[in-house]
Amino acid sequence: MNNIALGRYLPMNSLVNQMDPRAKISILFILMIAIFIPAGFWGYVPIVAFILLALYLSKLSLSFAMRSLKPMMLMMVFLLVINVLVMHTGTLLISWGWFKVYSDALVQTAYIVIRLTLMIILCTILTATTKPLDLTLGIEKLLKPFEKIGLPAHVIAMMISIALRFIPTLIDETNRIMNAQASRGVDMQNGTFKEKISAVLSLIVPLFVSAFDRADQLANAMEARGYDPSRPRTRYKTLKMTSIDYIGLALAFLVLAIDIAIAWL
Amino acid sequence: MSIKINDLEYTYSPGTPFEHQALKGVNLEIPEGKVTAIIGQTGSGKSTLVQHLNALLKPTKGSVEIAGFQITPDTKLKDAKMLRKKVGLVFQFPEYQLFEETIAKDIAFGPKNFGISEEETNQRIKEVLPLVGLDESYLERSPFELSGGQKRRVAIAGILVQDPEVLVLDEPAAGLDPQSAKEMMNLFMRLNQQAGKTILLVSHDMEHVLEYCDEVIVLADGQVKTQLPVHEFFKHPEILREIHINPPGIVNLKETLQNKGFQINPDTYSLDELAKEVESQVAGHE
Fold first, then answer.
1. How many A-B residue pairs are in contact by the CB < 8 A criterion?
2. Interface predicted TM-score of the whole assembly (ipTM), two decimals
3. What is the 3-state secondary structure (H, E, C) of B94-139?
């Protein structure tokens, strides 16, 4: 449980760590658009170059980024299977009776896998270099303009930061309950289907009970201290864009422009 | 058979940036049929040690001998399942492990997992309920409509029903009012004295340690700092201060009196005897 790389903040003093969260979120957003521009395989070259530069500047190892892909492996295999079964265009590559593999299925899968991989690595860089609270502050500031059309930016940011805050707590809680039930003879790995269902129930039910308990306590604690989401609030931490942030944004726009150019030409 | 821990080492998340060695060569022999306290600061390795006792964790190095089982780094967890029946682990705030619709079902959950027959389980539930201070009218109720203290009794009944040879208790009285805490501790003492269960108590409450335990083990920074009989241990309150734990009131009182020039018998641990000693010395002066 403690080996999850996805979404974990690593306290390091790198250039990317010091960047403004607003700039980092915007860069992520711009690159996401670039990833989805149908510019062929060449279109991914500038994006990959940008990601490698970001990894280097954030002092993260490539293996750390790769580890965050692990949970997605199963999904990628699943995608491949679906594509092979569904896509029947392009040239026929393998034919075993009814089982036929066409080239388009492989190309299509390759596209999806590349896109997913790039997006996950980008998100990993963002979360590994940005404290969760800075991240939500960034989201809140970026959503601020939409408050005029009734979007509750502060409430959304508060919900995200509470959710993020409680991920480690819930992981600890899960470990605790798993240990407690294992001490009562639950075997999470082995056993028949029926035994597994009961094993999962013995974990899920107490987890929900304690999560609701915690939510209740947190709500009371916030109310007791006069929390009111509609009131204007001041911040201890104010965000400031520096030249690194502008350079990063400019580079991201450059990548987007190159991809648009490749797609058009 | 006593519990033997040989050169036990345990490392969390080895080979990652979060690598952390929690136990650094622990050697212990814990006597059978006694009540032994394990104390230490947060992060001293208490919980890690305790989780080795029923093979929730496997040693990185070294071995644990307990209840006829030997746990080494190569032990297959499948073979250790029956160890968990013989060593009952009561975690902190065990009320959070309840999940069944009725109390009867929840208590029977452990025995069912260990393959104990339904008849025997029902028989055992009837024996265990009065031990934890509940009666059979509770059996068909939902555990979620009980108070916190009652929930904890149900959870503890769920461990006792396994009839473990060794009971490991992690702060079993934490968060209870003094009266319930006392009842809880007395329950475990009865199990120790009448049924001969070996009890390991992880606690921060030195009053409980002094009153109920036979031996004290102090862990610090993943190693055993001291292992002494309880009355011997409390003659050295400086060990406790080193790990930032307050000695029991009576020990503090003895120390204060000694500093004021009274001659106090180091083996005195009752308030009445202490009062008599002081009285006789004051009388001698007048």
1. 63
2. 0.88
3. HHHHCCCCCHHHHHHHHHHHCCCCHHHHHHHHHHHHHHCCCCHHHC
